[in-house]
Design a protein that fits this description.
Helices cover about 20% and strands about 30% of the residues. The chain is of the alpha/beta class. It has a 7-stranded mixed sheet, with helices on both faces. It has a two-stranded antiparallel ribbon with strand order 2-3. A two-stranded antiparallel ribbon has the order 7-13. Strand 4 (about 50-55), helix 2 (about 60-65) and strand 5 (about 75-80) form a beta-alpha-beta unit. Helix 3 (about 85-95) crosses helix 5 (about 190-200).
Length: about 220
C-alpha cells in the first residue's frame, strides 16, 4: 500500500511563517509539520512508501526529510510541473501505482487510527473512503452528507444557514482505489472535492465515510 501526501501548497494562509519555509516543514513543537503525518503512516506497516506531491520549494523539503530512513518509511518525491489541484496532483503522484492508496491533505494534523479507516474501506469493498469530522461552525466549510449506512450522498459547498443538514466536513484523509483515477484528466488542474468525489456519487459507486470525532486541526485555516 502507498500513501500520497499532498504537500505542494504555498502556505499563503500561514505567512509570514512560510515566506522562506515551505508549509510542510514549518516547525510545530520543534518538528517539521509533515513529520506528524509520517508518524501516522509508520504505525500502519502495510504502507511501504510515502509519495510526497510537491510544487513549492521542493528541494527545501527534500533536504529536511531526506529519503525517509530516519523517519521509518521510504519517501519518494514527485514535483508537479504546475499546480494541478488536489485531484490532478493525486493522479500525477500515483503514476504506476496499482494498489490501494491512502491520501492526506497537507494541512491536516490529527491522531486518527489509520488502520481503522483502511479496515472500513476493505470491509465495505469501497471504491473510495473519506474521513469526516464534526465542527462547531459548519458554515465555514463544505459539508458532506451521508445516509444511515455511511454512504456519501452529497457535498454542499459554502452552505448558508438554511441549508445546513449536517456538521460533518471533509477531514482531508482518504483511502482510494487507483483504477478510479481514469476520470481525472491528465496534466490539468482538477479538484478531488468538486469533481472526483461527486463523480463517485453520480455513478452509484461504493463511497463510504469514516466519522472521526477525535483530535483534528487544519493548520492552514
Amino acid at each position: 500500500m502507498k500513501a500520497i501526501l499532498l504537500a505542494g501548497g504555498m502556505g499563503t494562509r500561514l505567512r509570514p511563517l512560510t515566506a522562506n519555509t515551505p508549509k510542510p516543514i514549518v516547525p510545530i513543537f520543534n518538528r517539521p509539520f509533515l513529520h506528524y503525518q509520517l508518524d501516522l503512516l509508520t504505525q500502519h506497516p502495510e504502507i511501504d512508501e510515502a509519495i510526497l506531491s510537491l510544487n513549492y520549494q521542493p528541494r527545501r523539503i527534500e533536504e529536511v526529510l531526506g529519503d525517509g530512513s530516519s523517519i521509518g518509511i521510504p519517501l519518494r518525491y514527485v514535483v508537479e510541473p504546475e499546480p494541478l489541484g488536489t485531484g490532478g496532483a493525486i493522479k500525477f503522484a500515483s503514476t504506476g501505482v496499482t494498489e490501494t492508496v491512502v491520501v492526506f491533505n497537507g494541512d491536516v494534523l490529527t491522531q486518527i487510527d489509520l488502520a481503522s479507516v483502511v479496515r472500513l474501506h476493505r470491509e465495505r469493498r469501497a471504491r473510495a473512503t473519506i474521513v469526516l469530522t464534526p465542527v462547531e461552525n459548519p458554515m465555514a466549510y463544505g459539508l458532506v452528507e451521508t445516509d444511515r449506512n455511511a454512504h456519501v450522498t452529497r457535498f454542499i459547498e459554502k452552505p448558508t444557514a438554511d441549508n445546513i443538514t449536517t456538521n460533518n466536513i471533509n477531514a482531508g484523509i482518504y483511502v482510494l482505489e487507483p483504477d478510479t483515477f481514469d476520470r481525472i484528466p491528465s496534466g490539468v488542474p482538477w479538484s478531488i472535492e468538486r469533481a472526483y468525489f461527486p463523480s463517485l456519487v453520480e455513478r452509484g459507486e461504493t463511497f463510504v465515510a469514516y466519522l472521526y470525532d477525535g483530535y483534528w486541526i487544519d493548520i492552514g485555516a
